[in-house]
Amino acid sequence: MAKEIFYFLIFPGLLFSGVIGGFLSWFDRKLTARVQFRQGPPLLQPLYDFVKLLAKETMIPKYGSPTTFLLSPVFALFGASLAAVFILLPALGIDGGFNGDLLVIIYVLNIPSVTYIIGALASGNPLAAVGASREMKLILSYELPFLLVLVSIIIKAGMTINLAEIVEYQVLHGAFIGSLSGIIGFITIIMCIQAKLGLVPFDMAEGEGEICDGIMIESSGTILAMYKFVKYIMLLILPALVCTLFMSGLSVSGINILWSVLKILGVVLLLTLIRNTNPRVRIKQAMRFFWIWMNLFAIISIVLAVFGL
């Protein structure tokens, strides 16, 4: 029991994922600043932002459901931490997971997005409701191609749904990203993760210039700090999942630590470049993009995986 609590609260769960995710957030912001010919924030800026929010007053909306509004970030943090444990333990080779853990990860990764929606609706703010509506449509759009990509991975790994066995298969037979179906699947899942993280061009649920932060418009103080911490965790575990599914996982032994760090930074770099080279799209355009093109890419990946390509 003590080991499970340690995994959840310290490593690789809540604390570890949040801290490393904070550094990745700095990397993302620093790179964005460089692209825009700015200096960018100092290394500890994500920590300063988090602590500053904790010190601020938490405003409770007058209308809506205060209890649900206050509990939403708690469940978001719980879901993100749980996902970190399920993804990082097998990815780092610390634990073999359990049979079917990949299916559990699919559901757990949706907990933060669902709690964003619940919290926004519980605030009673009409702009937050618009943001929640967009978030729901976005989930319905990217979730199917995300699942289809996982189907192609399962086929390539010999029909296993155990994350540790997928990593082991790649160690023995080569990383999936080295195959044609793997490249197509990688492109698809990167776009899905861009939407899961709410990054441009798929940040219409917040839409600062349209709906004033949308789903986060009523969040302040500790609530906003918890949501920010959730985003830090997600910025680590989603790239880690990509590395696990397509790049033979991660490692904490010897020189392999450096290679693992470069893998994660490479995925975050790609997400950041996409964010800084594309304008925000409308929700209708995002839905069309995922339902038509990303689903098509994912299906092609499955067909190629069936033929061993």
Q: What features would you describe in this structure?
A:
By secondary structure, the protein is mainly α. The protein has one domain (2-306). Helix content is 72%, strand content 0%. It has helices at 2-9, 14-35, 45-55, 66-91, 101-108, 111-123, 126-156, 163-173, 180-196, 208-211, 221-246, 256-276, 283-306. The model has no long low-confidence stretch (mean pLDDT 91).
Sum up the structure in keywords.
13 helices; globular; single chain; mainly alpha; 309 residues; 72% helix
SSE arrangement, N to C? HHHHHHHHHHHHH
Total domain modules: 1
Radius of gyration: 19 Å
Instruction: Find the structural class using helix and strand composition.
Output: mainly alpha
Q: List low-pLDDT spans.
A: none
Shape: globular
Q: Residue-averaged pLDDT, rounded?
A: 91
Major β-sheet annotation: none
Brief sketch in words of this structure:
The protein is mostly helical. It has one domain. Helix content is 72%, strand content 0%.
Topology, please?
Elements: H1 2-9, H2 14-35, H3 45-55, H4 66-91, H5 101-108, H6 111-123, H7 126-156, H8 163-173, H9 180-196, H10 208-211, H11 221-246, H12 256-276, H13 283-306
Helix pairs in contact: 2-11, 2-12, 3-11, 4-5, 4-6, 4-11, 6-7, 7-9, 7-13, 9-11, 9-12, 9-13, 11-12
